[in-house]
Amino acid sequence: MSGTKKAPRPPGRLKRLLGPAFSPRGLLARAALITLACGLAHLAGLRDYTTILSGTSPSGNPSDVLSTGLGTLYVVLYLAFTVAAPVFAIAAGLFAGYLAFAARGKKPA
Amino acid sequence: MTEKLKKILNAGGVSLPKRILVTALALLIATAIWLPLLHLLYRPRVGDYFAEGKLPPRARALAEWHLDLWTNAERRAEAIERMRGSNAEWDFMGRTFLVLALANMSLREPEEKDLYLEVMDTIIDETLRLEKQEGMYFFLMPYAQDRPWVNQPPRSLFVDGEIALMLGARQTVEARREYALPLAGRVDAIVRSMKKSPVLSGESYPDECWTFCNSVALAAIRVSDTLDRRDHSALVKRWLRIARERLVEKETGLLISEYTTGGYAMDGPEGSSLWMVAHCLSLVDEAFARDQYERARRELVRRVLGFGYAREWPPSCPNTPDIDSGPIVPVLEISPGSSGLAFLGAATFGDTRTLSGLLTSLHYGGFPVRRGDRLRFAASNQVGDAVLLYAAAQGPLWEVVRKKARRLGWRTKR
Which residues of B touch A84 (CB under 8 A)? Predict the structure, then answer.
């Protein structure tokens, strides 16, 4: 053993963009990421694949796994966009509000 | 961005355990705030779909999609092929529900009657042609050919009943000579088939009777009687008496969905049957139909966080998912089949609260797609959208038939 510590690797671009996981910025970034993913799925036309919810295959072939997968992916992203993303955004606001409130009580160093 | 704001956004200077704790708490509170509000974003006005007189705007947009489909052979073939890949019955039922919707729309909007009649005739003619050319099995699921039919020669009440109802609806709006004999012939076949069974029920599949199909058949008989003035009211009364005595599940008081020609239950009550049953029976015995609707609503309709839906089975009669129930959402037991047809039940009995809950769910999980003046639901299919359109349009046709029946002395109990 050399006895010297390795210098920590600088965070990657995505990690920098997302920010610390447990922080208002981290929560907001995750909400934005979900919104982006759902938007892309929508633009790619995956909404039509949700016909699987009625037991209908988008291609007319019930054993078409790809269509079923795309429909499921859209539903999951849509649920994340409508439930998780707003919850993350509200939580980010609450977290930031708490930190701002806590900072007011502290004397400047 | 100021340093202070940056520090707050990154939770700088806060220990990891504290950040985890605050994040968890914030997520918990945010969930408690957001979930009860979510339905407000998806709740349309009931009046946008369901109203007296002319079709309200969103129901009109749904109708435009169907009219476009039936005037565009390529798009229609595509939509029908998609459904037939899963279930040939849906192709057939999609036709029935659309014809019934158009009949009601003709009575609501007499100035558009010619267009609606033209589409109705196209659907009826094509359906009769396909039945003649390919046989009744074209509209049935493959297992219809797996075993012998009890009554010979084989006839499916599913096919006969819905064709008779389509013809009857068309003739009620405006009589067309070419359809008079086919309608009377179809009703004769229905009556023969029903009379062969001790429970007065025709087979839809080999030794398989459905309250859905028998109720449709009773409605078709009543519509036909008001047109050609034959009187099958005794048969209708007997069917209702037998149904009350032998086809009702004891615990819930609901009509079972499926039984043998001898009257032995094959399945308990099912939402995908009951809503249509209540709708059709309201033409021949309104009090019994309303009672069935109220019971079904108590047993099957649920509301969670403002979203309404229907289960396929009452809690006391669990069963396994099938092509009629559609894929069931676990835990909540949401059935797309039952929820879709629940629109028809709720619209028939003017249940605005249930309609509002169901519409909210439809706008959330039905994935509406608007193209110009047309509306469809991506999560649905042609038959699902046709059911919704029929639910929105229904009313005037039944009212005309009821009035005629009263004049002829066949009272429906109110």
Answer: none
**Orientation of helix B177-195 relative to helix B157-173, angle to 10°:** 140
Task: Provide the domain limits for residue A40.
Answer: 27-98
> How far away is chain B from the Cα of A104, in angstroms, using its nearest Cα?
11
pTM (2 d.p.): 0.93
Nearest CA in chain B to A103: B8
A11 within domain boundaries: no
Per residue in B7-25, pLDDT (tens digit) is: 888 888 889 999 999 999 9
What ipTM did this prediction achieve?
0.88
- In chain B, what residues touch A23 (CB-CB under 8 Å)? 9-11, 19, 23
Q: Which domains does chain B have, with CATH numbers?
A: 61-67+87-406 (1.50.10.10)
Spatial separation of the C-alpha atoms in residues B321 and B334, rounded to whole Å: 11
Question: Among B30, B85, B369, whose Cβ lies nearest the Cβ of A90?
Answer: B30
Examine residue A105 and state whether it is found in any structural domain, yes or no.
no
Q: Does residue A47 form part of some domain?
A: yes
The amino acid that residue B403 corresponds to is K
Q: What angle do CA B409, B413, B414 make, to 5 degrees?
A: 120
Separation CA B388–CA B365 (nearest Å)? 15
